[in-house]
Design a protein that fits this description.
Belongs to the LysR transcriptional regulatory family. Keywords: DNA-binding, Transcription, Transcription regulation. The strands form four sheets. This protein has a five-stranded mixed β-sheet. It is built from ten helices and twelve strands. The chain has three domains: 81 residues, Winged helix-like DNA-binding domain superfamily/Winged helix DNA-binding domain (Arc Repressor Mutant, subunit A); 98 residues, 3-Layer(aba) Sandwich (D-Maltodextrin-Binding Protein, domain 2); 100 residues, Periplasmic binding protein-like II (D-Maltodextrin-Binding Protein, domain 2). The chain has 295 residues and is an alpha/beta fold. The longest helix has 27 residues.
């Protein structure tokens, strides 16, 4: 039987494939992570990870174990939460974070629906920067958050998706692309594309700035920015371009930035995220209220 710290170390390392980042996520030393994984491998009898000086990779056995353990842990923790909540009802305090004004407006509507359904539960909403979302969830400062996706991280559950909006490219008003009706994802290989900060999940960073186009052409990375306002300021200054959701035209209209629709890009998705094992009655009820608002 795996102990909790072994399970956490294995699944987090399987996600990060980096001992240092895994240690940071778990708030332990790198040596502790290495010792835990080595002990687990001795017990199982085969290596779970290939380690070199440059990279860490799952072995076939490690990959199979990860694929079977992750959904099982989620099922167990959610079942325990549901059992605890069955006797409590939807009461207490629910803390919900959001990123950006469009998400804030949607969150206000969902909160109104939730309060009508569950008047005995207090809801407290607060705005977070993108880089704050996961730290707030892990620190218990928020129970859930409404933010842009994807947020594929170990220990994080996403969904439901509430909004899908067209993807657009923010460019300086004097840029040749600003005179076009649409742009293509392949056009990203012709410009410098601004980055989201390293602190954010790789899935979200690569959704915003893919390393390559679908045809395999390299995308040139530009400076990074912590907020959308900061990123659009860099766009206006000619430092690069960035992909945004269509809501930016309304909430972030600027005289120095033009928004050009993509003709072939996947839409930007917005949804709720929470910690794995954090599916309390309050959290589930809020997700149902938010989904009913957009259906």
């Amino acid at each position: 039987m795996l102990e909790r710290h072994e399970l956490d170390a294995f699944l987090t390392l399987a996600e990060e494939l980096h001992f240092g980042r895994t240690a940071e996520r778990l708030h332990v030393s790198t040596a502790r992570v290495s010792q835990t994984i080595a002990k687990l491998e001795r017990r199982i009898g085969v290596p779970l990870f290939h380690r070199t000086s440059r990279r860490v990779e799952l072995t076939p056995v490690g990959r199979q174990l990860e694929e079977e353990l992750r959904p099982a842990r989620s099922l167990i923790t959610d079942a325990v939460e549901r059992a605890v909540d069955a006797g409590r009802g939807v009461t207490g305090l629910l803390r919900v974070a959001f990123t950006g004004p469009a998400a804030g407006q949607l969150l206000v509507g969902a909160t109104q629906v939730f309060r009508e359904r569950h008047p005995d539960c207090e809801v407290r909403i607060s705005e977070a920067r993108l880089a704050d979302v996961l730290p707030w969830l892990r620190a218990g400062e928020a129970d859930m958050a409404l933010t842009c996706l994807p947020m594929r991280e170990a220990g994080i559950v996403t969904g439901p998706v509430l909004v899908r909006e067209a993807r657009m490219l923010a460019v300086p008003v004097g840029h040749p692309f600003a005179r076009r009706a649409t742009v293509s994802v392949e056009d990203l290989a012709r410009v410098t594309v601004l980055q989201l900060p390293e602190a954010l999940p790789r899935s979200l960073r690569e959704d915003c700035t893919p390393p390559r186009t679908p045809a395999g052409r390299t995308v040139t990375p530009g400076p990074s920015a912590m907020t959308l306002n900061e990123m659009l300021t860099l766009v206006g200054a000619g430092e690069g371009v960035c992909a945004v959701g269509a809501h930016a035209r309304r909430y972030f209209a600027r005289p120095d930035v033009a928004y050009v629709p993509f003709a072939d890009a996947e839409p930007v998705e917005w949804g709720l995220v929470r910690l794995e094992g954090g599916a309390s009655a309050r959290v589930r009820a809020f997700g149902e209220a938010a989904l009913s608002l957009v259906e």
